[in-house]
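Dear all,

This email documents one entry for the complex benchmark we are building for the journal club exercise. For each entry we list the sequence lines for every component of the assembly. Then comes the predicted three-dimensional structure of the complex as a token string, followed by one or two observations. Please use this as the template for your own entries, and keep the labels exactly as they appear.
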Amino acid sequence: MKYSNATNYALHTMVHLILQPRESLVGVQELAEMQHLSPTYLSKILTKLAKAGLIESTPGAKGGYKVSRTKHEISFLDVIHAIEGDTSLFDCSIHHEGCAIEKVMWQAEENMKSELNSKLLIDIAKEAESKQK
Amino acid sequence: MKYSNATNYALHTMVHLILQPRESLVGVQELAEMQHLSPTYLSKILTKLAKAGLIESTPGAKGGYKVSRTKHEISFLDVIHAIEGDTSLFDCSIHHEGCAIEKVMWQAEENMKSELNSKLLIDIAKEAESKQK
DNA sequence: ATATCACGGACTCTTGATATCCTTAATAAA
DNA sequence: TTTATTAAGGATATCAAGAGTCCGTGATAT
């Protein structure tokens, strides 16, 4: 059980975008090189982030991506949800209504999500910025 | 991102075993039928549980499985760990030491594990027992 | 001795994630 | 207007891991 690579890339990309000067655009090319990915592949991920409203894209020459206006409200959970979709980690295999095992698993997952929802990308970005030599 | 079916089956199997009278053995046959699985497949899962010390097996005729003596201390996390192994949900794709993103993800996972560690199978088993008509 | 059971290796099958290729559309600059 | 640049997206190929089966071995009660 692992988070997808896509989620990994998405999180790093988002942090990078948040560090950019306001309204400045970054192309897939640059974002891909930074993480040693092919532009076409990262493009798919960026499209998902855009569909979720976390970033905005401008097509054409000098185009690129920038974080949407809700910048200071974007949490880890937002990014993860944009990539992984809306599924629960566990579904009872026998499906008798109200499975007690399922309940426990869901509660545990909720605890994780709650933590991921309270952490904002902007906090991490600041930390990363102050670390740069 | 999903827990494996094996984990699902393992949890249900463990709860069933805990409900058995002390020291009585249950064969793979019965356990498999209960969950509509092939005995051979469930056997692999049971072997993992045994290797982790959660259950004990007796070979030969009239053999089978029973919960190990630590019965009242087995948590959800124990079972999950026995099946899924010891891996973290997230590993930074860029691997610069002490990645801030990774730290957040690990903390969140820790919150989930903490919950799963505090829930014991025996509690669920009692609940399931009282529900039976 | 025989039937029953757990154990484990090797193998197949399926599925979803990963990744690439190629075409289309939009925009800036020349 | 033409050209270069860039995002969007469909189709396809690749790959790894999980799911599940088959078969042979060994242990034990009857």
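Observations: Residues 18 and 53 of chain A are 14 Å apart (CA to CA). The first helix of chain A runs from residue 5 to 18.
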